[in-house]
Design brief:
Layout (H helix, E strand, L loop, with lengths): L2 H9 L1 H7 L4 H7 L2 H8 L1 H11 L14 E5 L2 H17 L3 E5 H6 L12 E6 L5 H13 L4 E6 L5 H4 L7 E5 L13 H12 L6 H30 L5 E5 L3 H16 L5 E5 L16 E6 L4 H16 L5 E6 L11 E5 L8 H22 L26
Parallel strand pairs: 1-2, 1-3, 3-4, 4-5, 6-7, 6-8, 8-9, 9-10
Length: 396
Amino acid sequence: MSDLLNAVSTAVPAVALLTRGVSMEEQAERGYGHTLREICRQPEAWRAIGTRFTERPSGAGASPDGWVLTGSGSSHFIGVALAPTLQASLGVNVRAAASGELLLTPEAYVTAGSAATIVSFGRSGQSPECIGVIDLMLERHPLCRHIFVTCNPEGRLARGYQQDDRVSSFVLGREVDDKSLVMTSSFTGMWLAGRLLGWSSDASGFTRQSSTLADIGRAVLLSRLEELARVAREPYDQAVYLGSGPRFGAALEAELKMLEMCGGRVRTRAETYLGLRHGPMAGIGGRTLIVAFISSDERRRAYELDLLTELQRKRLGLAFVVCGAALPDHAADECVLNVEYGECAGVGDDDLVAIDVLVGQTLGFFRCLHERLKPDSPSETDVISRVVPPFPMHPI
């Protein structure tokens, strides 16, 4: 058991029930051992990534034709979370495109003669559409440069293109190559590596920021996990996740974690705050859990808090989980759980994505157990799998 998981087991009764006197082998047999360890190892994994990766790859310069961030499922949401941040730091157009969309409609994202930078995220580095997109782009758009971010040192992203000088890669390794079906440490690990792509030449700043995130993540696990476990057991049948800017990417990933780990038993939706008023609010009822990631930007936060006030005035939602730094006090409201990240000096929306996702993972994990499913393999009928199996590729 890692030092942090041991500390969490001591501090959090809901975790102690799963670990005290239960061997790692038995935890695996019960179907939660891998996911629990993979969630709790994230803060130290972030610290290690910040120390190990201190230089951007050679392809990380500002391409005049912009960047495309691509991946499937959770790996696509990494791109959604990173695109606003990288665009601001690189000063070029940065778009997130699901690998499936890039495979089916490449002309919508990369034009003839383009010298764009294409960043591919993939835990296994083996998914069929991920590899299909890379092969297509290398053939039809030879001027594009590629950056691969992957966890699996044996996958095709890590080993299949080493001889091509258009390709650079981050291989994070087994420390974040989750064994569970759902992506947890692999998501935040690849996101953090992607965060480095837009960093300035001062690598020590990236190392410090990674360490600060690790401290915040550790504090959230130790101080808020018991309350999150309690909220996860509330009688809701739908969960709605709200975020703005980079943190909308976190909302998408948190929503997917609940959906995957509960085998579809809990209906889920991710939305922007202002987008909620344009139709989706009609779907929020009295048995909806609302998870709100609150911006550190004063102007964004004002809009977000106005929307939460409106939901409460309309008596929409069973319970609220409000997450962020220096949150307004909801202590008198029994329906609101504040997940306070602390003052977070120097850490804004671009970086709090990792902490938001950590909260979403823990809610999904404990709800999965409440539903008597197995977080390591929650799909009882194998509707989804850890790696999407191969399917035919059709020529353009």
